[in-house]
Amino acid sequence: MSGNIDMDLPSTRGLQALAALKKAPSVSKAAEVLGVTRSALSHRIAELERQLGVTLVRQVGRCGKLTEDAESLLMVMGDALDRIEAAVTPLRRRRGQLRISTVATFASHWLIPRLPDWQHLNPDVELAISTTTRTIDLTNEDFDCAIRHGLGDWKGLTATRLFNETLLPVAHPHIVELSSNSTVIRARSRFRDWNRWWRLSGRVGDPPDRSVVVETRAQAMDAALAGAGIAAMDLAYAAPHLASGRLRALDATVPLPEGYYLVTKGGQKSRAETIRRLEIWLLGQAQTDNPPNACVP
To answer: Does pTM top 0.70 for this prediction?
Structure first.
């Protein structure tokens, strides 16, 4: 007996997407963990469903819920995904993957929304985005570059400024003014932002006492969008919501000395051209932001 056996093995990316969705509270958060767009993650799961011939995710309201088949599949897989990933990562890296470390708020509110443009212009380079607040070692860790917040004075590294940081008060359109009776939204990760804006904008006294305290600036943005109060936000993050009318700027934008930088190390000859392409693209994206028009209350 002769012939070919066609084994359509399940997509590793689809399994990764399914595993991420199980751990995350939403499709958007799962996509953020994997460093891909929401549509890309949904496409990976749909392809896996096509391969297996079963439904793996059902839409319940605005959330994606795993089916019993999906739960059973992940239970059987166990840690196999981690072992597969460890085996194929070196091969993928040789194919043209660029690994970037950054912080979660920058990734979700600035970088990831722009990924479709990168994918269109650079279909041969896959960006793998990892988020962390710790200081990474570009020399000894498996990252090609990082996007970091600071003054750009990192010893032994090359830092290219993408844009300066700013702060301005933003709120849901139904909140029309910032006053002593206002509720301000503070992020524990950036607790001094309101005090810095208050002082740099020339106001006397202190910010309002009434506040909502959240963990991150991403949560502060969500709280402002929900109408819970006024957030002191970087214009780079708030600009799309201001342009769409989902947020209103309540006062002036003030510049800060810190900024966001693309940080690289020396001796990367094999990836120098790809990193340069990323640098040019990031600078171009930064220049498309238009702070003077976006911050008018």
So the answer is: no
